[in-house]
Amino acid sequence: MSVDNQRLPYDKVVQAVLGRAKRTKSDQVSRNELAIILSELARVLGRQVAGAVVELGCYRGATSLMMAQLMVELAPTKQLYLYDSFAGLPSKTEYDRSALGDDFQPGVLKASKSEVLKAFAHANLPRPTVKKAWFSQLSGDDLPEQICFAYFDGDYYDSIRDSFRVCRGRLAPGATLVVDDYDNASLPGVRRAVDEWRETGLSDIRSFRPVDSLAVIRLMV
Ligand SMILES: C[S@@+](CC[C@H](N)C(=O)[O-])C[C@H]1O[C@@H](n2cnc3c(N)ncnc32)[C@H](O)[C@@H]1O
User: Separation of 76 CA from ligand 1 center, angstroms?
Assistant: First the structure.
């Protein structure tokens, strides 16, 4: 049965999307983290914050598909933009080194743009804009003019720093950013990049909340 978003509060819409996607397993985020990401997205959509939704580091699109389903329910005209090297992870910098993070090697987590697009078509979801590029090669023009919600999942210091760089000046008042692996001892560069961005004071941060491994950052309206 389709979700009647006129009558259900947003958390019920989130639960419905999560429930419907029971078989869509993600090996990249836990169910609880997924629930947090979707709740934050639902909050932004419900408040009608201006701009598009972006994910930097989409891999095979498991989280992207869930976000897209929620968007169809709550804000069907919102655009979704996905970015990835589709060549897997780049090399680590010194800030990414951790005895726990040996599994993260260059080229690991390789996916393809066509498999992401196929997954969207298979799920009968609107086709997102998918850009294959290293984040360091993206310019502001590759991003939508305004962003209401950004999910950064690039794993490494440079990848997260570059994600903040390309989104600079595009985050709408009231936008929310969620960064994966902020609290993950295997990937210490993520926390460093987030904390450095916070220290720049370039965005008006309303609240900063580490929850599970995520950093949830809400901007001032
Ligand atoms: C952990 S996976 C993303 C998982 C995805 N967000 C999900 O929830 O299913 C990390 C992805 O980031 C991409 N990535 C990491 N650093 C990148 C960079 N600097 N430029 C482009 N892509 C990058 C990798 O190719 C990989 O697909």
Answer: 26
